[in-house]
User: Fold this.
Amino acid sequence: MLHQKGVRSEHAYVAAFVSIGLSIAAWATSLNAEPGAGVARADRWGIFVGEWAPTFFGLGLALSHYEQQDGTLTASVRGLHGEREAL
Assistant:
């Protein structure tokens, strides 16, 4: 369904890396914006956003697998897979 809506594996991978960056940003922002709350609250915000990354990576892997079977895998990713298989 996601693939039919135009979501590709590259989109999920980008979202995963962005969520890692947002996790760090949320931790730092919470730490600086709420100094009385302490590190515990900042850690909770960072962990909350950081838990999204594995989900996006999993979606990326599933979409990549579907794209390989469907034949819609992009040329750049196809080239990477070809190099890996050559090794």
